[in-house]
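cron nightly-structures :: item 1 of 1
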Amino acid sequence: MSKSGIAVTPECVDKFNELKLGKTIKYIIYKLSDDYKEIVVEESSTDPEWENFQNKIVAAKSSYKGKEGKGPRYAVYDFQYELEGGEGTRNKIVFISWSPDEGTLVFPRMTYASSKEALKNALNGIGAEVQANNEDEIEYSTILKDISRGKR
């Protein structure tokens, strides 16, 4: 359980293990349940196109007390990239915490921030972590540059 008292559902871990071990799932998007009591799987996909994944993250919405804003999300992406100098292909499981700086309601944003560690700790085998607060930080090239150099 997180500092905020939010629990991670077993499905979150099961789906992550399926991504990690089965290598058929490309990404998983997690969200807080509508009642803000647990972290749940919003979607998983085999779609290898980064742009489709990115569009789903950026378009996410959250609501609280009748108001709606941009939605923070957590995601895990099985990132594949080529090493420089033709040294081969690598995969790295990347944990992404998406929390837009603008247009996000305060309660969802703070709840996501205080619940992130609970999800990360439940998912064994994360190779890198990315905190993205604007669309430039969730561009494929930005993440590739950071994880291929071991910065994240």
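cron nightly-structures :: done
The mean pLDDT is 89.
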